[in-house]
Amino acid sequence: MVHRQISLIMDYATVVHPGVKLSVVKKDPDDDKIIECAVSCNADYIVTGDRHLLDLKEYKGIKIVTAKQFLELV
Length: 74
What we know:
This protein has four helices and three strands, in the order H-H-E-H-E-E-H. By secondary structure, the protein is of the alpha+beta class.
């Protein structure tokens, strides 16, 4: 069951290997890896429930929104 779910996700996912190292999320540095991935793949949005990321609202043109906000946008 788990392998099937992972397979379905991988059909739509893009694996990103960030080429940048950033220090953006001061309150939770572990979240920097999310920003690094978004920057590396030229993302338009980060969709998250993480409060530390949501507090940023945007980083270099990448909007950081909740799932509800994203669904309202699309």
